[in-house]
Design goal:
It is a single chain. With about 110 residues, the chain is mostly helical. The protein has one domain. Helix content is about 80%, strand content about 0%. It contains six helices and no strands. Helix 1 packs across helix 3 and helix 4 crosses helix 6. It is globular, with a radius of gyration of 13 Å. This is CRISPR-associated protein, Csa5 family.
Length: about 110
């Protein structure tokens, strides 16, 4: 789930908003968790298409360039296969924690 965490961290660092991480971390169902991930993915793609001069965080821009979209998609597919709420909660909590950790590095 490292790639999803990196994607969310870039969004946090660049937008200075924890919305994506909060939504995912508190998603009450798998369907909502997947919806929030797809929402973040769309916003990330839009952000990634901006020229570097429009980014406020050079570190976030650099990190965004390293993220492989096919790996993000595979990780989302693995979340789709989760069957228990406990396992889903563990997965999204881990992603959220990693994203916050990475974001703090990108902001500084």
């Amino acid at each position: 789930m490292e790639n999803i965490a990196e994607l969310l961290a870039v969004l946090v660092a660049e937008n200075e908003s924890y919305t994506y991480v909060d939504k995912l971390g508190y998603a009450p169902s798998k369907d909502l968790a997947l919806y929030y991930l797809r929402e973040a993915l769309r916003d990330f793609i839009s952000l990634k298409n901006k020229p570097q001069s429009q980014w406020s965080s050079p570190k976030a821009f650099e990190e965004a360039g390293k993220i492989k979209m096919e790996l993000v998609e595979r990780e989302i597919e693995s979340i789709e296969r989760i069957s228990s709420m406990k396992e889903l909660r563990e997965a999204v909590s881990l992603i959220a924690a990693k994203a916050l950790s990475i974001a703090s590095r990108l902001k500084g």
